[in-house]
Write a structure and sequence with these properties.
Low-confidence stretches of chain B: 92-100
Order of helices and strands of chain A: EEHEEHEHHHEHEHHHHEEHHHH
Order of helices and strands of chain B: EHEEHEHEE
Largest sheet of chain A: 5 strands, mixed
Structural class of chain A: alpha/beta
Helix content of chain A: 40-55%
CATH architecture of the largest domain in chain A: 3-Layer(aba) Sandwich
Shape of chain B: elongated
CATH class of the largest domain in chain A: Alpha Beta
Strand order of the largest sheet of chain A: 1-2-3-5-4
CATH topology of the largest domain in chain B: Alpha-Beta Plaits
Helix content of chain B: 10-25%
Number of domains of chain B: 2
Oligomer: heterodimer
Structural class of chain B: alpha+beta
Shape of chain A: elongated
Strand content of chain A: 5-15%
Number of domains of chain A: 2
Largest sheet of chain B: 2 strands, antiparallel
Number of strands of chain B: 6
Strand content of chain B: 15-25%
Low-confidence stretches of chain A: 1-31
Mean pLDDT of chain A: 87
Number of strands of chain A: 9
Chain lengths: 377, 100
């Protein structure tokens, strides 16, 4: 990604640095190395190498997500000069990569803040990407000596942690909030640093939801695998005592049921989000979960020999548990979405979580009881 | 089309008497919740508010208050389970989201 070639510093008398009253900036040093110091400017290209592509794909699947970082500091893209714009970014490498790719063919300085390897929005919400860090980074990179102007372009969602009027007061730099999406930057710059309404608004398109799906599936497996093991364990026991044949058949049937519920809650709900009824994510997720449960228990859905001829107990168990599981997984999509609020999620969880727990536990009890009280051996 | 979450839950409040009409809140809101009406900002789509806190933080005149946080069920579950190092936790009513 980087050509990793330090450029000689511009003349930068330390005495000329703005005196600041800001204290205690937490400087977490990422594993990839310490922050770049004053005058230590790196050139970067807008090209994505194969490594960048693979890295981006990996973090979308939750692999090495917490250590996908670039060193905070000042970067030069496309040989910028003293009048080139300064773009502020987080040090989550995917954020940085998307930004430099969007600026292909342009000239800019990229000021990478230490956001602890987290994207702009989450880091701003957490407070790591905030006024203090920005003011600190302006000073530690000697930015006032590098450019003649006093303007910074901060991604719109950085406004969650960065107070423009405070930055001005402490550093003399004027913050202009740029577009939400890096892809709109060239248009924003051509526009004379004006973000139109569409650039300023978060969206949640099918494509944007789709890239989040892997990170719904991976954590969902953390719930699904233990539940499946539990069911397989119970599956062998019944009126017949213990039977390996029953364990295999009931285990396979449970695996198919759970896989479908996972697909419903972690894939179908995110993709169909705007079109599913209700406002709460649990209500939305209940619908594909119920559809799957009905498909699974009715003979028409008996696509596996193991799922054919379910006992009434098993039928009731799945109809109760599968929509509950799907609703629970869908509720977990609230954090990835761009449309939920903390007050709303708290309210939703207060009524939805107990219902989901009743559905899941009730289903489990019926399923186990059925093997002792009725149905096939 | 704006996808709206639950009705009437946001803690967003605009104190009109303190508003100077500087427009900053309407510019930083990522959900089109605030709009200028005459010389004052107004909340026009309350249910679209995600309580991100950008408007309140960037109001130099303290005309907006909101209990800011991240609407993340996982964060709430993690904090109820007492997990401190999970990807998202809520700490003292302040949301902390480190990697999700």
């Amino acid at each position: 990604m980087t050509k990793d070639k330090s450029r000689p510093a511009k003349p930068s008398p330390a005495a000329a640095l703005t005196q600041l009253t800001v204290v205690e900036v937490k400087t977490h040093l990422p594993p990839s190395g310490a922050a770049l110091g004053a005058g230590e400017i790196r050139e970067v290209s807008s090209e994505w190498t194969l490594k960048d592509r693979v890295g981006g794909w990996k973090v979308r699947w939750g692999i090495g997500r917490n250590s996908y970082r670039v060193r905070p500091g000042l970067y030069a893209l496309g040989e910028p000069d003293r009048r080139s714009p300064v773009l502020v970014s987080a040090n989550y490498k995917l954020s940085f990569d998307v930004l430099r790719r969007a600026m292909a063919g342009g000239k800019a300085w990229i000021l990478v803040l230490d956001s602890d390897g987290v994207n702009v929005w989450c880091a701003a919400g957490k407070g790591t990407l905030g006024t203090e860090e920005l003011v600190h980074r302006i000073r530690s990179t000697n930015l006032p000596e590098v450019v003649d102007h006093r303007k910074l372009i901060v991604p719109q969602l950085g406004a969650v942690g960065i107070a423009a009027h405070e930055v001005k007061k402490h550093s003399g730099f004027r913050v202009v909030f740029g577009p939400v999406r890096a892809g709109d930057l060239p248009r924003f710059l051509d526009n004379g640093f004006k973000a139109d309404n569409a650039m300023r608004t978060v969206t949640f398109t099918l494509r944007e939801r789709l890239v989040l799906v892997p990170m719904e599936i991976v954590p969902a497996m953390r719930y699904a695998v233990p539940v499946l093991l539990l069911l397989v364990l119970f599956g062998g026991f019944g009126r017949w005592g213990y039977s390996t044949e029953a364990l295999l058949r009931n285990g396979a049937s449970a695996a198919a049921a759970l896989a479908g519920a996972l697909l419903a809650g972690a894939v179908i709900t995110p993709l169909l989000l705007p079109w599913l009824p209700g406002r709460s994510f649990s209500a939305k997720g209940f619908v594909p979960g119920l559809a799957w449960a009905l498909l699974f228990v009715f003979p028409a859905g008996a696509f596996l020999p193991e799922t054919a001829n379910l006992s009434p107990w098993e039928t009731a168990a799945w109809v109760l548990a599968l929509p509950a599981l799907s609703a629970f997984l869908s509720m977990n999509f609230t954090g990835s979405s761009t449309v939920t609020s903390l007050s709303g999620v708290k309210k939703e969880m207060r009524y939805a979580f107990p219902l989901q727990a009743i559905g899941a536990l009730g289903g489990l009890l019926l399923w186990v009881a059925g093997h002792f009280l009725g149905g096939r051996a | 089309m704006t996808l709206l979450y639950l009705r009437d839950v946001t803690t967003l409040r605009l104190h009109e008497e303190a508003c100077t009409g500087c427009k900053v809140c309407t510019l930083v809101c990522p959900r089109d919740v605030l709009k200028m009406e005459g010389k004052k900002a107004r909340i026009i789509e309350k249910d679209a508010c995600i309580e991100c806190g950008a408007c309140a933080l960037n109001c130099a005149f303290d005309a907006i208050t909101v209990k800011a946080g991240v609407g993340c069920a996982n964060a709430i579950i993690n904090s109820k389970l007492g997990r401190k190092n999970a990807c998202c936790v809520i700490d003292d009513d302040r949301d902390v989201c480190t990697s999700c």
